[in-house]
Amino acid sequence: MRLDRYFRLCIGEAARGLLGHRRTAAPAIMIIAVSMVVFGGFVLVSDNLNGMLESWRERGHAQVFLDFDVTASERQAVADAIRDSASVESFRYLSADDAAAQFRQDFQELGDLLAFLESNPLPASFVVTVSASARHEEALVELTEGWESMPGVDAAQYDLQVIRRLELGVNALRFVGALLGGAVLLAAIITTANVIRVLVVSRRREIVVLRLVGANESVVRGRFLAEGAIQGFLGSVLALIALYGIYKIGVAFITAGGGPLLAMIPLRFFNLTLFAAIIGSGVAAGLVGALLAFGAATRLER
């Protein structure tokens, strides 16, 4: 039998079988959808956080915080040292008042807190853009340590320090997502296997007749594999629809002022690779469930 004809036969028989037993197959499809929503949700959050961290890496920013009692000569000396550095692309001075104004702009919900304080707690600083050739750990450490040693400087830090801490949180999120998504996906595989096993048992007589008339084992089993794959595909599609709805609600929430920290994350939906990965994971779960159900099929009388 030609391969394309074989696939059409298996998919056609699987579609008819699922339509005829849709009440039995629906729970497996829904559980696969739920598992893909859980797994895909963690992937979506992780991908957006990675995008945020990548954009921060590309900025190459460092910040030199000055003492509150810094003198004009000390501040000028720091500015000259930054300007004379071959690793600096550009820099700007941010006064304490400018820092407070920027804080109020970036964190509108928290900016009013500054009005209750007796003095401005934000120090003046220099915001430095490091050249592309120096945007690595060794060069940044050398730069910030040199600036920190100067009179009038309280501290110096670079984005990679913050990024490194955030990456720990992203990796922890991935680990939790893998555990939780894997557990729910395992439940989906078991449910799919039980559904396929029920379908195999309910068609025992039909399968026996097929074998008696000469149908080979690949045709008999292929239809059940196709049923598992279709269940996984439908569950994944439902999950992607749900995730897109959640994504649009999240974007609308942030656009309407859903929090200063969330507004710093440039949200994006799945790219083509992740989209295919979610679909592929659902189909794989359905196929594995169908393979597990073959224990019942092999016990059928020939």
Short description:
This protein has helices at 3-20, 22-59, 72-84, 96-106, 137-148, 159-202, 204-212, 217-255, 272-292, 294-298, and strands at 61-66, 88-94, 125-130, 153-158. With 302 residues, it is α+β, with helices and mostly antiparallel strands. Helix 1 crosses helix 8, helix 2 packs antiparallel against helix 6 and helix 6 (159-202) packs parallel to helix 9 (272-292).
Description:
It contains 10 helices and 4 strands. It has 2 domains: 3-55 and 167-298, no CATH class; 58-163, Alpha-Beta Plaits (2-Layer Sandwich), CATH 3.30.70. The model has no long low-confidence stretch (mean pLDDT 79). 70% of the residues lie in helices and 8% in strands. The protein has helices at 3-20, 22-59, 72-84, 96-106, 137-148, 159-202, 204-212, 217-255, 272-292, 294-298, and strands spanning 61-66, 88-94, 125-130, 153-158. A 4-stranded antiparallel sheet has the order 2-3-1-4. It is an alpha+beta fold.
